[in-house]
Each structure stands twice: as structure tokens, then as C-alpha cells.
Amino acid sequence: MKGAVDLQGLPPADMPEVAFWGRSNVGKSSLINALTNRRQLARASGEPGRTRELNFFNLGGEIRLVDLPGYGFAKAPKKTAQVWTRLTEAFLKGRPNLKRVYLLVDARHGLKQTDTVMMDGLDEAAVSYQIVLTKADKLKTAEQDRITATTLGQLAKRPAAYPEIIATSSTKKTGLDDLRDAIAAFTTEFSG
User: Which domains can be identified in the chain, with CATH numbers?
Assistant: First the structure.
């Protein structure tokens, strides 16, 4: 739909939105492409920090998906990264139609310190978020279950965290229906 590099460039807050956020190279673009069955809707890159604006995708006129710039390491000048970080923070704190942030976490590594810092900010701003484990196909079932249980334990006392984790794989297409269902629930909530 559009990319926004400042708050004035945001589309009107006239339909529900869900945002995808996570560390650089966690697989946001790949997951968005798999979720929407489009190969190049979101540009995936092996280079950290490729997404440098807020990218809005209109999903059937029912809901917008927002691809946020990743946090953590990025191959970009520090001042450039600071600009998109401030824009992301302002968007998250001030968007009245933002229904949920899907915080993407690489299943192989679990929550990192940078994820915890971002969760602190979401909790403080009372922005609802849910953990989505990416690259879950890289783990054996027992290891995936352990990471899921550990992560749920880390969310237990977080006021804005939704207490359910969705494990996904963009390559194996697993967990996508669960994520689609979670997102679709916000379309009926908004209109009903």
C-alpha cells in the first residue's frame, strides 16, 4: 500500500492494524510473504536493517499489516537507524487502531536482551503484543516445546503480552493458519 518515513506519511487510522516487529534478520519479510502467499510482497534480504520505513499492506480492505523496521544490529548509519527507531516508537505508542504487535523471535535463540527491552517499552505503553517464533522448522519438536515453555514463562508477569505463542516456519508453511486466524479475529472485532 505505502511506506511511511514520518508520522505525516501514515495512512488514516480508519481500519484495524497489526504490526510485525523483531530483531533484524528474524524473518519478518519472509513470514509476511508466506502469510499472504506472495513471494515478493515484502522484500526479504540477508542484510540486517533492510526495512527502513513503516510498510503498510492492505489485506482485503479488512485490516492493514504493518512491517516495522527491525531492531538491533543493522547495516545502516547510526543516525539513519535512530530516525526509524524514533518513528517506530512514536507509531507504536500513538496508533489508536493498532490491535496487536506480533513480536517475532527466532525459535533457535529464544528471547534476547534486545527483545526484552522492546517488550518493556510495549508493556509501559500498554500496547498488546504476542510472540511469534520464526524458523521453528530448524528445531526438533522437543526443543521447540522447550523454547515455547521457556518463553511463556518469561511472559507470565508482562501486562501487555498475549499469553499464547505461535510457532511458524515460512519455508515449511507451518503455523501460518494459526497466525492468519489470530489476525482475522481483529477484523470482526473492529466491525462488530
Answer: 2-191 (3.40.50.300)
